[in-house]
Amino acid sequence: MDAARLKRSWHLVAAHGDEVALYFYSTLFLAYPETRQMFPTNMAGQRDRLVTALGHIVSHVDQVDRLVGFLQQLGADHRKFAVRAEHYPAVGEALLATLRHFLGEEWTDELAQEWAAAYGLVAQVMVEAAQAAEAVSPPWWVADILSHERRAFDVAVLTVRPQFLLPFTPGQSIGVSHPAARAWRYYSPANAPRADGTLELHVRAAPGGAVSSRLVYGCAVGDQIHLAAPVGDRLMLWSAGSSDLLLLAAGTGWAPVKALVEQVAAEGSRRRVDLYVGARSRSEFYDTDAVDKLASSHPWLSVTYVVGSDLRQPGEFVHVADRALADGDFRSRHVYVCGSDEMVGHSVAAFTQAGYHAGQLHHEGFGKHWYGPAWRTVTGPDNSGGVR
Length: 388
Prior knowledge:
About 40% of the residues lie in helices and about 20% in strands. The protein is an alpha/beta fold and about 400 residues long.
């Protein structure tokens, strides 16, 4: 397989931007209309995801070990879209037709064979991973909504119970979908694993967000939602060893941080934990009862609330990271950051400039989750809801 040739040809195709995915999906749906039901009604975000995924696969085509793990997660995760082995040839046909269309005279029989071989390997790894996953977990879990609390106009806290146990580790994210929406959104449970298997989800409705809007405005106790297998490892505590922690959360980014605090409590360790919880205004602290209860129950936990805007100082904004850096020297700690892209980006930059090294700064990638661990892309209508 000529990796350089594949990369060069994909670079030429990707230069056409949104037209690539539009042509691909048009070709796929016209030739195989039964595949349309696997995708959301609004395809805007899906088109960008396709280009991002293909770009990642092609750019790592010569790094087999790194690519195989990504493809295995991709294959296992695609089960929740009802993708089966017989669908892969249809996708391969549409992909080759798309490449041929945009490459024009650059498209040759030899290049077609290279792409067909590359796609064949990709499909094989994904299909085998999906088959292996069938032995250990279902494509998705059905969960009953036990409680639904509106904490703000656009924020709801849900307690759900999967009909079968859904194992996860604090800091991971799980896929969530409403039966009426052909789309998935990733949220981090706001709790450590419980004996009764229930999960707590913190959801902020995003404008136009098919999943987040239904979860906040269109659900009630007794309804059912679908959950997918957990993904991600960047926010898990294993990488911090037994170190003391500095936790920074903003908005519904408090959810995975809350789970980490509960995990520390369950461990019975002697960690020291300083928690900074930020919001743009005091009215946006939607889970203060839980924060205060944790602080009063655990002497090793210190909590500081940070209000971003102050009416007495218009035009100024206080970032959670800046407040933490001003309060003390935490360079012996592992730092976990969760919030909006802007909050995470500012925090990482501030701590890096202050001398903290990358290995002690833990956060997810930027943008929203889509398929697998640490894979997020900034597009689509549901960017600001959920964990972020």
